[in-house]
Amino acid sequence: MSSERTKEDATTRALRQAAMRHPDTEETVACKGTAIESRRFSIGSKAFLFVGAKSVMVKLDESKGEAIGLAAKEPDRYRIGATGWATVATGDGKAPLARLRRWVAESRRVVAAAKAPAKKKRKAAARSTRGSGKK
Predict the structure, then answer these.
(1) Which residue ranges form the domains of the chain, and what is each CATH number?
(2) What separation in angstroms does the CA of 108 have from each of 7, 22, 49, 61, 100?
(3) What are the tens digits of pLDDT across the range 19-57?
């Protein structure tokens, strides 16, 4: 096994551990059997982390400005989309693990917060339907 592969595996293990320490986190495989196959970490149906062989994706909010600055300085390592999804290249075995762990926790908070209002709306709609005699 090459040392590069070992480092990639260490990155994957570290990020998996960071993701799975949060309650209600589920791990699945996204895009199985394709070139972009990755581990998908989610809360219910909402993903907050994708870990592929050469990159990691997280959803950012408060660190979005930091990610934009990093993307300007290191465009080969960092990319940030308009909706806050950041992609970090990790294939060189030099993943910024401390930053990625922090971003995983933030991504989980962002996704959980976005999921909560939708759940409240569904519950409120169900209550109003029961109370009105509608079926």
Answers:
(1) 3-132 (3.90.1150.30)
(2) 24, 8, 8, 11, 12
(3) 999 889 999 999 999 999 999 999 999 999 999 999 999
Of 10, 23, 1, the closest CA to residue 91 belongs to 10
Give residue-wise pLDDT tens across range 55-82.
999 999 999 999 999 999 999 999 999 9
pTM of the model: 0.79
**Residue 55: which of 103, 115, 113 has the closest Cα?**
103
Token pair of 39 as six digits: 């581990």
Structure tokens at 50: 């994708």
